[in-house]
Amino acid sequence: MKKVISIMTVIFIISTLFTPASLADNPIIQTNYTADPAPIVYDDTVYLYTGHDLEIATTSYKMVNWKCYSSKDMVNWTDHGTVLNVSAFDWARHDQDANAAHVIYRNGKFYYFVSVSCTLPGKGGIAIGVAVSDSPTGPFVDAIGGPLVTNDMTKYASHSWDDLDPAVFIDDDGQAYLYWGNNACYYAKLNEDMISLDGEIGYFDITDQAQFGPDYEEAPWVFKRNGIYYLVYAAQFPEHIAYSTSTSPTGPWTYRGVIMPRQGNSSTNHPGIIEYKGDYYLFYHNDWLPGGDSYHRSVCVEKLEFKEDGSISTISMTREGAPAIANLNPYARTEAETICWSSGVKTEPCNEGGMNVCDINDGDYIKVARVDFGDKGAAAFTAKVASGSGGGEIELRLDSADGEVIGTLPIGFTGGWDNWVTKTTSISGVTG
Ligand code: FUB
């Protein structure tokens, strides 16, 4: 049954500037299993694109779409829902293989590079496609009408899924490069149109341990910092995250070691790295949500630290994740699906556009972190709600699920699950 607010209590936890860290904030998405993170910074905002491990998966991947989330503070993430589905690609399998992907912005458009299963005659295996949109949150449509790279058994690695895990890097001179590969690492220049290759496909010799250590596996991610090119990737199986550096985007590379050892029980990991407001962040995945395993993964984030010589410090997966870098303004409209941590609730497309929170049961909660109420404090809480049954109530609590109650908003029957009404309650006792 679809529920938006039903006959029960949902708790809104507000952690203020002075809240001691009380709840775990990794994995950063709790409403879906997410994998293969691909973050970008656009318009002062982090957009995080992820794969989506369906709950019905058993002993293999079941992935048919990709999700998008955004944040301006690194701890509260707004859910933009499904932004691309394998069904957008007529030439691909529609029941599986929404594998790792990468989004990049260029010339006013967002390009979504995906690795999917190709159904074209004679071109079976994993292929790379590109979707395009004018907006970071889609809708994305097939940009080519066919694959950009198809499986070719004469290439370096002769298995049918070697064209996995595309990642794009645009150098300072404007040249875009596409990197990809499972048990192979390919690269090619992209033309200015971003949907065609400029020249031949090259490959790096991943068996050369001086360049790639003992066991390059997949998931390349390239970025440049202080003139050094970094190629970060998943190594070994089960996987950890390692990296190599170069003075050129096309190598040769020098193996530099492990960034993140394996922790937990996911057999894969997958790096996505951004610089945001002066700091670098590593997005990755593990199996740390309840019910998690190799096919039910979840995206997490940690701050990345560089040493003087440009090498990257080895870091662990943590429950705390990256620190907040901005406060949340409670006096501006905040979407309910802006979440630091949640328990029980789900999200869905809203009949009025955007997304809404749903499937709310008694005691479920949403935490928003680092809320700044200012010196004068807040006097009221307003929410847009819908209920097709008894309605329940929203409790607002400070700092934890059993923290001080600063207000309660009764909901009641609103005329239907898609019948949204605005309700307000007074609140007290919160400043700073
Ligand atoms: O999510 C499916 C595959 O698992 C990805 O393409 C790989 O990078 C690994 O994370």
Quick description:
The chain is mostly beta strands and 432 residues long.
The residue ranges in which pLDDT falls below 50 over 5 or more consecutive positions are 1-9, 16-23
The set of bound ligands, ions and cofactors reads:
beta-L-arabinofuranose
Terminal Cα separation, in Å? 39 Å
CA-based shape = globular
Instruction: Tell me the Rg in angstroms.
Output: 22 Å
Largest sheet: 5 strands, mixed
**Helix segment tally:** 1
Helix content: under 10%
For this entry, what is the oligomeric state of its chains? single chain
Mean pLDDT: 94
Major sheet: arrangement of strands: 22-25-1-27-28
Strand content: over 45%
Structural class, from helix and strand content? mainly beta
Helices and strands in order, then pairings?
Elements: E1 9-16, E2 33-42, E3 45-53, E4 65-71, E5 77-85, E6 101-106, E7 109-118, E8 125-133, E9 141-142, E10 167-170, E11 176-180, E12 185-190, E13 197-204, H1 209-212, E14 216-225, E15 228-235, E16 240-246, E17 254-260, E18 272-276, E19 279-286, E20 298-304, E21 338-339, E22 341-343, E23 346-349, E24 355-358, E25 365-371, E26 380-387, E27 393-398, E28 405-410, E29 416-426
Parallel strand pairs: 1-25, 1-27
Antiparallel strand pairs: 2-3, 3-4, 4-5, 5-21, 6-7, 7-8, 8-9, 10-11, 11-12, 12-13, 14-15, 15-16, 16-17, 18-19, 19-20, 22-25, 23-24, 26-29, 27-28
Bound molecules: beta-L-arabinofuranose.
